[in-house]
Specification:
Elements: H1 2-17, H2 26-39, H3 43-52, H4 66-69, H5 93-96, H6 108-120, H7 129-143, E1 161-164, E2 168-171, H8 172-188, H9 193-205, H10 209-216, H11 226-241, E3 250-251, H12 253-284
Parallel strand pairs: 1-3
Antiparallel strand pairs: 1-2
Catalytic activity: Endonucleolytic cleavage to 5'-phosphomononucleotide and 5'-phosphooligonucleotide end-products
EC number: 3.1.30.1
Keywords: Disulfide bond, Endonuclease, Glycoprotein, Hydrolase, Metal-binding, Nuclease, Signal
Length: about 290
Amino acid sequence: MGSLLRLLLVLLVAVAAGAPAAHAWRKEGHYMVCKIAQSFLTSEASAAVTSLLPSWAGELAETCSWADDERRRYPWSGSLHFADTPGDCQFFYDRDCHNMKGEKDMCVVGGINNYTTALMNSSAPLVDPTISLMFLAHFVGDIHQPLHCGNTADFGGNTIIVHWYNTTTTNLHRVWDLDIIEKAMKDFYNDDLSIMTQVIMQNITEAWADEEREWEACSTRTKTCADKYAMESAQLSCDVAYAGVEQGSILGDDYFFSALPVVRKRIAQGGVRLAAILNRIFSESSEPQSS
């Protein structure tokens, strides 16, 4: 009975902390990914993206949490936010890209590929290019959060209960979604999201300048390399996110300073790659019609 009570307590805390829902990067991280992407768009792609923005948005970055905000409206999209794996630190599309019913292509990689194709054929019946753009932008952010390619057994860290600096009971997934970014903003960026974004953008053009071209490179005919991005996240989930973490772990400075460089670089990579995808779409397809 004691073991059962402990299990129930873990599950109740997990639900309270947000498990197993997955909202990668929360609003702050998604905003930074899309803000960075905007700076790398060609003039042609920038004009096309602007023409597709919904009436309530003045820029792409304002729309990039839309897919989380509207999940109740699109319940079928839930599995498109992640691509969990059996825990072997690798992603294989044929094995891992499915929802809990076993339906194929229902994972974040399938979502990126699907909405890329939709935008390239935006005049096709039933395609809403504005919705397609907002889903695509969000999912490219999602796939770069390592625990969106975490372990199926713990729903990408959602059911691993941890104590953030021994002051907040949360779960491992939320630590990567929000807590690391919030602490970084408080400690290093004067609680200013624009400053953190600018610093990451400066790193792309300076510290990571030699890597940036490799990040955006993609020679596949489907116009995305989302399989590669998922494989990177699966490996990082093992090497960094899950490293040394158990149920009830207290995560403090050691964990924060090992995770923060990964968070910053994954946000940078997400922005660069989103821009690269949009640049390819809108340089190789006819101009989409706004809806």
